[in-house]
Design goal:
Elements: H1 41-51, H2 56-66, E1 70-73, H3 78-88, E2 101-104, H4 111-123, E3 129-132, H5 140-147, H6 151-154, H7 156-175, E4 179-181, E5 198-200, E6 206-208, H8 216-225, H9 277-305
Parallel strand pairs: 1-2, 1-4, 2-3, 4-6
Antiparallel strand pairs: 5-6
Helix pairs in contact: 3-8
C-alpha cells in the first residue's frame, strides 16, 4: 500500500485496520483515527458545482447535515446578519440548526457595532456568541499599553495578527472548530470576485460562503423584509464595517468594500488570506528556534559521547 498521504484509498493510520482495503471503516474503531473532514480536489470541485445552483438556505441545510463542529464567524455585517436570521428559521427535520457565533472583538470596533451585538443576542437567544479579544487585553487602553499607540499605523501586519488573526486561530483551537460560515460575497470586490461556496484553507479549516452569489441589494432586501437588526452606520453611507480607524463611508458607484482601507491596495485583514506575511514571519522564527534547539542538542550529545 502506498505511503503517500491522501492518495486514493489511503488514509494515515488505516494500515492495520481490518477492512481498510475495502474502503469502509468504522467510526468506533479503536485502532485508527478517521480523518475528521477531508475533501479531495475533485470532490470539492463537484460540491461547489452543485452548491452554486442552490439558494443560501439550501446551502445552509447542506452544511448542517454535512459538517461537524460548524460555527459562524461574523463581524455582524449584512451578510452575516442575513445568515443568522436564515439559520433561525431553518428546518432540517429532527436536526437542530442552531449554530453558535464567533465574534472577534478587536477592541477597535465602532460603538454601533458593539451595540448591534447585544441586539442580536436578544433577538436570537439560541445562537451563543463566543467573543475573542487580543490576548491579554480587555480594552483599547490595554492594547495600547501592550503594543503602543496606533499600532495599525506603525506595523499594520502586526496589528492584524494581534487583533484579528491570532484571536481567530485561538477561537478555532479552543472551540475545536472544523468549519465556519462566513459573510463573504463575490460582489464585494477585490479578491472575492472568484469566491467558491466551499473552500479549505492551508490549515484544513473548511470555510463556507453561503451568500457568495448574492448582491448587496439582495442581502439588504432580505434584511428589510425579515426585520433583521442591522448596524446604524449603514444608514450613514457605510456598507462594509470593520475597525473605526480603517473604515469610511462608500461613495455612490464604489465597491461596497471601498471604504475599508480606503485609497490603498489592501482588501483583507489577514483572517481570509492564505498566509499573512506576519504569519509567515512567525513560522520562520519558530522553524529557526527549532533548528537552533536541534543543533544545541546535537552539540551536547557530541560532548557527552566524546
Amino acid at each position: 500500500m502506498s505511503s503517500a498521504p491522501f492518495e486514493e484509498g489511503y488514509y494515515p493510520g488505516f494500515e492495520d485496520l481490518e477492512y481498510a482495503d475495502s474502503g469502509y471503516v468504522s467510526a468506533d474503531s479503536s485502532k485508527a483515527a478517521i480523518p475528521e473532514v477531508f475533501f479531495s480536489k475533485q470532490h470539492l470541485k463537484f460540491i461547489n458545482s452543485q452548491l452554486q445552483r442552490l439558494e443560501p438556505q439550501d446551502i445552509l441545510r447542506w452544511c448542517i447535515i454535512t459538517l461537524p463542529e460548524l460555527y459562524q464567524e461574523t463581524a455582524f455585517g449584512l451578510s452575516g446578519l442575513a445568515t443568522i436570521d436564515m439559520l433561525s428559521k431553518l428546518s432540517v427535520g429532527p436536526i437542530s440548526p442552531s449554530i453558535n457565533l464567533i465574534f472577534m472583538d478587536t477592541l477597535h470596533h465602532f460603538d454601533e457595532t458593539l451595540a448591534l451585538v447585544g441586539k442580536i443576542e436578544t433577538k436570537y437567544p439560541s445562537s451563543i456568541v463566543h467573543v475573542f479579544k487580543p490576548e491579554g487585553c480587555d480594552n483599547a487602553d490595554d492594547f495600547a499599553a501592550k503594543y503602543g499607540d496606533n499600532l495599525w499605523e506603525k506595523n499594520e501586519e502586526l496589528y492584524d495578527w494581534k487583533a484579528k488573526v491570532e484571536p481567530s486561530e485561538r477561537a478555532y483551537a479552543e472551540l475545536n472548530v472544523k468549519a465556519v460560515l462566513t459573510g463573504r460575497r463575490k460582489t464585494q470586490g477585490g479578491k472575492r470576485g472568484n469566491l467558491d461556496i466551499v473552500e479549505v484553507d492551508d490549515a484544513g479549516l473548511i470555510k463556507v460562503n453561503p451568500l457568495a452569489n448574492w448582491t448587496f441589494d439582495q442581502v439588504a432586501d432580505y434584511i428589510r423584509e425579515n426585520d433583521v437588526p442591522y448596524n446604524d452606520l449603514l444608514d450613514r453611507g457605510y456598507k462594509s464595517i470593520g475597525d473605526w480607524h480603517s473604515t469610511q463611508p462608500v461613495a455612490p458607484g464604489e465597491d461596497e468594500r471601498a471604504g475599508r482601507w480606503k485609497g490603498r491596495a489592501k482588501t483583507e485583514c489577514g483572517i481570509h488570506n492564505p498566509k499573512s506575511r506576519y504569519a509567515m514571519f512567525l513560522m520562520e522564527q519558530q522553524q529557526k528556534e527549532q533548528e537552533e534547539a536541534l543543533s544545541k542538542d546535537m552539540g551536547e550529545n557530541l560532548v557527552i559521547s566524546s
